[in-house]
Design brief:
six-stranded parallel beta sheet, 2 domains, Quinone Oxidoreductase, Chain A, domain 1, alpha/beta
């Protein structure tokens, strides 16, 4: 079968579209023919190499996908051949106290497909049944492949970690990105007041169509002052951070008294400064967040089935054109998700 792999960390030349043996299906797993798979910024980070996080190489990239079950192990009884499914990308031991308490993303063995083990950018994948869910009937395979990781991440950040409330104000960086567009929808559905930033007027319009009440172009004028005017100097209740060092100082300054900053990533750098006096005087909270758990995944899928959370596929590439697809994302050309077809 064909698969997108890296055998070294580096630039676009590290990406290969390889012929590898088709995997066999163990008795406790299912085998899925991938119909579509999405790219996330995680793929870029893994390709370049994550500091302090060794990756076993060669590695098949990819965390999200949709497809059809072609084989079911003898010990699996809740799925059958021919089921169309989507993939839940988190992996965990299932036996520790965190897993038994349904907090799988706290498991010491927690991982993500395409990061800690082979992922979804292949013609076939072998998965534990806990990693799959029946595909919403109203979605195409590309649309269905585009939603799981970003919506699970944004849901965990906003609903579970930051505990965003109706009528609170949330600031979402990169509203046209995959995780940003998911955060806009989740916040709007909850009834929060949504301010989103983007890097162009076209992307700002995209964020507004998704449901942002206010949009700010962070490449034009003094965007921080514009946000202060929008909030009438009351500050932001929840800052949705995934940028890192480039926005950190402004995020803290824009945060209200009692505000919460929640972060899942650091695309511009992970080293930041914190003024502890400012933090405790304003009674603010800084929250880290990684992926999500199975109960949250099921809630996200319920919202998707009810058409309250909608896909945003920007562009579809052939899987063999993986270098072109990565380049498209690295140059920040996308508005929404980029999807690959085997």
């Amino acid at each position: 079968m064909k698969a997108v792999r890296i055998s070294k960390h580096g630039g676009l030349d590290a990406l290969t579209y390889d012929d590898i043996p088709e995997p066999d299906c163990p008795s406790d797993k299912v085998k899925i023919r991938v119909k579509a798979a999405a790219i996330n910024h995680l793929d870029i980070w893994v390709r370049k190499g994550l500091p302090g996080m060794p990756v076993s190489l060669p590695l098949i990239l990819g965390s999200d996908a949709s497809g059809t079950i072609v084989e079911v192990g003898s010990k699996v009884h809740n799925f059958q051949t021919g089921n169309d499914v989507v993939i839940q990308p988190g992996t965990f031991c299932g036996n520790c106290h965190h897993c038994k308490e349904k907090k799988e993303n706290y498991c010491s063995e927690y991982g993500i497909l395409g990061e800690t083990e082979n992922g979804t950018l292949a013609e076939y994948v072998i998965l534990n049944p806990v990693n799959i869910h029946k595909k919403p009937e109203h979605l195409s395979f590309p649309d269905a492949a585009s939603m799981q990781l970003v919506f699970m991440t944004a849901y965990q950040m906003l609903i579970i970690r930051a505990k965003l409330q109706p009528n609170e104000t949330v600031l979402i960086y990169g509203g046209s990105s995959g995780v940003g567009s998911a955060a806009i929808q989740i916040s709007r559905d909850l009834g929060a007041n949504v301010i989103a930033t983007s890097g162009s007027n076209l992307k700002c319009e995209f964020s507004k169509k998704l449901g942002a009440h206010h949009v700010v172009n962070h490449n034009e004028g003094n965007w921080k002052d514009e946000i202060k005017l929008i909030t009438e100097m009351n500050g932001i209740n929840v800052v949705f951070e995934h940028v890192g060092s480039a926005t950190w100082k402004e995020s803290i300054r824009l945060l209200s008294k009692g505000g919460r900053l929640v972060t899942c990533g650091a695309t511009t750098g992970a080293d930041v400064d914190i003024n502890l006096a400012h933090l405790f005087m304003k009674q603010q909270s800084i929250l880290g967040s990684t992926m999500s758990n199975i109960p949250a995944f099921k809630k996200v899928m319920a919202k998707i089935n009810q058409k309250q959370y909608l896909p945003n596929v920007d562009k579809i590439f052939a899987m063999k054109d993986i270098r072109e697809a990565h380049n498209y994302i690295e140059n920040r050309q996308q508005m929404g998700k980029v999807v690959l077809l085997p």
